[in-house]
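Chapter review. Work through the record for Methylthioribulose-1-phosphate dehydratase before attempting the end-of-chapter questions.
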Amino acid sequence: MSAGGGARDLAEAGAVLAAEAARFASFGWMRGTSGNLSVVLSRDPLRLAVTASGRDKGELTSADVVLVDERGAAVQGGRPSAEAALHARVAASTGAGAVVHVHTVASVAMGRRKPGGILLRDLEMLKGVGQPAHGVEVTLPVVANSQDMAELGDRLEAARDPRMPAVVVAGHGLYVWGADPRQARHHTEVVEWLLELELTGR
Ligand SMILES: CSCCC(=O)C(=O)COP(=O)(O)O
Ligand SMILES: [Zn+2]
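Structure tokens for Methylthioribulose-1-phosphate dehydratase:
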């Protein structure tokens, strides 16, 4: 996708996000219209393609996407995700090119069990988020939920560990990011695997 964020770029981004959403929905991670996805189309000014609000994320088409600015406000298209402002904040503060938000049972359950953060170590799967399997302890932060995206963004920025491209939002779900939609997908699948292991395996 080029830097312009034009109509064709938006439709292309919509097709990519629809395919990613269908995959996550097939795993049961976006039930009942939950979750949202975004991809950065330009950095200066910051413009993101974000999934439209309230849609069944397993049935998105390339048209179910909205161009938003750095505050998450619609620039082109219909009503963006209610969490568009948080996507923009994550993209701006981490430099990520794509952001994934899913409502997984494991993220909410582990957020309840470990409200201070989830310690991860000695797992081969840590390589999937760019960490060595052994010798380091990485924390997956847990932040309190808020309906105010600015407040939630402050909490996420304060808590995030630069070694871990993800944050659990307590009672809500999981935010994960990556350089592009494909890497964000891989990070999401790895982090969710780690959460499921912590929930069931220890
Ligand atoms: C039942 S989903 C509640 C809203 C939410 O948390 C979510 O992720 C979906 O919101 P959107 O506006 O992106 O559809
Ligand atoms: Zn949500």
